[in-house]
Amino acid sequence: IPLTGPLRGVVVLLLVGFTWLLASALFGGEGSLSVRNIFTAELRPRRYKCGLSAPCPPKHLAFRLVSGAANVIGPKICLEDKMLMSSVKNNVGRGLNIALVNDVSSLLKFLRPLHEGTLVFVASFDDAATKMNEESRRLFEELGSTAVKELAFRDSWVFVGAKGIENKSPFEQRMKNSKSSNKYEGWPESLEMDGCIPLRPPLEG
């Protein structure tokens, strides 16, 4: 059926408009950004600090801990969108990787003088348990750990504690080294934990 009169004019205007939008999207131009946004806004999930799926409430710290994978891929410690420790930063090693927020020789000299309210972030790599003695485990228990007492050879472990904590920390995961469930040959799978930590003095500003 041939198009005549006003109907033909409407069709021509629609074709011109669609052609302009398509050209803008493909080749840039003032309208390209808005056109792209129409099609991509719903496809791009919003990114929050340290890759969290939702923002932390006010006066909370966003964090993400990832333990090492076997003895190959190093751990990561992120706080408030700042990567404190990672293989890329070349500041991780086998055993315990610890970041303090508040303010390395042996582990005991590292943990004993902590100030009240200091946050302690721990991510294991390869084997974190072999060189730990009774006192070092007790110090981690005082920081809120419940898993450190049973931590064994090549277990995966991530933990956030605090000096002077009144209760046990809710931020802790342990994956036992077991031949029947290990993801890697001789090692359990890597652990990943994130969340929001409420600020306490002297961290609260």
From TrEMBL:
<feature type="domain" description="ILEI/PANDER">
    <location>
        <begin position="102"/>
        <end position="164"/>
    </location>
</feature>
<dbReference type="Pfam" id="PF15711">
    <property type="entry name" value="ILEI"/>
</dbReference>
<dbReference type="GO" id="GO:0030246">
    <property type="term" value="F:carbohydrate binding"/>
</dbReference>
<dbReference type="InterPro" id="IPR039475">
    <property type="entry name" value="ILEI_FAM3C"/>
</dbReference>
<protein>
    <submittedName>
        <fullName>FAM3 metabolism regulating signaling molecule A</fullName>
    </submittedName>
</protein>
<dbReference type="InterPro" id="IPR039477">
    <property type="entry name" value="ILEI/PANDER_dom"/>
</dbReference>
<comment type="similarity">
    <text>Belongs to the FAM3 family.</text>
</comment>
<keyword id="KW-0430">Lectin</keyword>
<keyword id="KW-0732">Signal</keyword>
<keyword id="KW-1133">Transmembrane helix</keyword>
<keyword id="KW-1015">Disulfide bond</keyword>
<keyword id="KW-0964">Secreted</keyword>
<dbReference type="GO" id="GO:0005576">
    <property type="term" value="C:extracellular region"/>
</dbReference>
<keyword id="KW-0812">Transmembrane</keyword>
<dbReference type="InterPro" id="IPR039220">
    <property type="entry name" value="FAM3"/>
</dbReference>
<feature type="transmembrane region" description="Helical">
    <location>
        <begin position="6"/>
        <end position="27"/>
    </location>
</feature>
<keyword id="KW-0472">Membrane</keyword>
